[in-house]
Amino acid sequence: MRIVHVTPYYAPAWDYGGPVRVAQALCQGLAARGHTVTVVTTDARDASARAAPAEETRDGVRVVRVLNLSNWLAWRRVFVPLGARRRLAEALQSADVAHLHEARSLLHLAALPVLRRMGVPYVLTAHGSLPHHQQRGLLKGVYDAVGGRAVLDGGCRLHAISAVEAESYQKAGADPARVAVIPNGIDADEYRSPPEGAVFRERLGITADTPLVLFLSRLHPIKGVDFLLDAFAGLRERLPGAVLALVGPDDGAAEAARRQVASLGMERAVHFVGWLAGPDKLAAYRAADAYVLPSRFDVFSIGLVEAMACGAPVVVSRGCALAGEIEGHGLGSVVDYGAVDDLSDALYETLSQPAGARERAARGRDWALSTYDWEGIVTEVEKLYRDCLESA
């Protein structure tokens, strides 16, 4: 198949979070199976830099980048691509199927008339961005009014990465028959022999027996960093030597988190590490005595799956889409979002009873590796494309 992916950000724009890694892994997997894959994206990279070059072949995938009007706006999730219609028309003229990433993007509005004119069916993946009640509700409403609803309605299939997101599509008025639930994934081979965690502990300057809590995600208000810091302060009353590592790019919450850390007197106990990738990231998971994801709302966290695949004990809030599976299978601890004492207690239990925590973590590792391997997920996405071609 000739497949065109349309996404506002693509590798190496890692600071934009999980959707970038997911799109890259999916495109690589499709290309490895012999499909012709093209990505049309923007030059967004991070808060201070743009991605280059304008066109390249990356891991067997042709990547076409159009210029953003403003990198400052792009970092605030307002992508204004210049000259997108022409590049989209070039890419789509021989396409069998297209795949649009994110619920709302001006790239999609530019692509829609081209897709219609050329009769190319498309799949839409929202990546958790569909609900109005999350971020930029007013902008989302305006977008939907001027054409976003047509993008949603025109999708041959709507790809949900969890049952939570499937419900979001249905609440938006989509026919449940068009919604397919296929989770994000990981390269299971990468996690079968992950690096040891000693190098990460050396980075922090802590010993092998220092109790270490790890948060690895974007530092964004929706991720519940403030909730975690309050709970960690309570934990330190019982485990004064505990250390918290906040790993991930600043996405609007770092300054407030630093102020909160100072107000709680925990400057020596909380480390702001920044973004890590590759073996450094896996070493962080391996070093952790507890990985915590205290999100207000999360349709799917690839970081949580990665942590489990590395064998880290996990503590999550019920705002995370995988909380039900973790609780139901006894793979970790689950607390209500905002329940500070409960989160503190769950962290203390995990750190003070390492044998039980590691037993649950071992089951979680087996579950993550068997459930979320990209090989099977790419197969499911291929079937989705074929369904679109048959219906078209």
Topology:
Blueprint: E1 2-6, H1 18-32, E2 36-42, E3 55-58, E4 61-68, H2 71-75, E5 81-82, H3 84-92, E6 97-101, H4 106-118, E7 122-125, H5 137-154, E8 157-160, H6 163-171, E9 179-181, H7 188-192, H8 198-204, E10 212-216, H9 225-238, E11 243-247, H10 254-263, E12 270-274, H11 278-287, E13 290-293, H12 302-309, E14 314-317, H13 323-328, E15 333-335, H14 340-352, H15 354-371, H16 374-391
Parallel strand pairs: 1-2, 1-6, 2-4, 6-7, 7-8, 8-9, 10-11, 10-13, 11-12, 13-14, 14-15
Antiparallel strand pairs: 3-4, 4-5
Helix pairs in contact: 1-16, 3-4, 8-11, 9-14, 12-15
Question: Please, could you describe this protein's structure?
Answer:
- With 392 residues, the chain is α/β, with parallel strands linked by helices.
- It folds into two domains: 2-185 and 373-391, Rossmann fold; 189-371, Glycogen Phosphorylase B (Rossmann fold).
- The chain contains 16 helices and 15 strands.
- The protein has helices at 18-32, 71-75, 84-92, 106-118, 137-154, 163-171, 188-192, 198-204, 225-238, 254-263, 278-287, 302-309, 323-328, 340-352, 354-371, 374-391, and strands at 2-6, 36-42, 55-58, 61-68, 81-82, 97-101, 122-125, 157-160, 179-181, 212-216, 243-247, 270-274, 290-293, 314-317, 333-335.
- The strands form two sheets. Strands 1, 2, 3, 4, 5, 6, 7, 8 and 9 form a nine-stranded mixed beta sheet that branches. It has a six-stranded parallel beta sheet with strand order 12-11-10-13-14-15, with helices on both faces.
- Helix 13 links the parallel strand 14 (314-317) and strand 15.
- Helix 9 packs across helix 14 (340-352).
- It is globular.
- The model has no long low-confidence stretch (mean pLDDT 93).
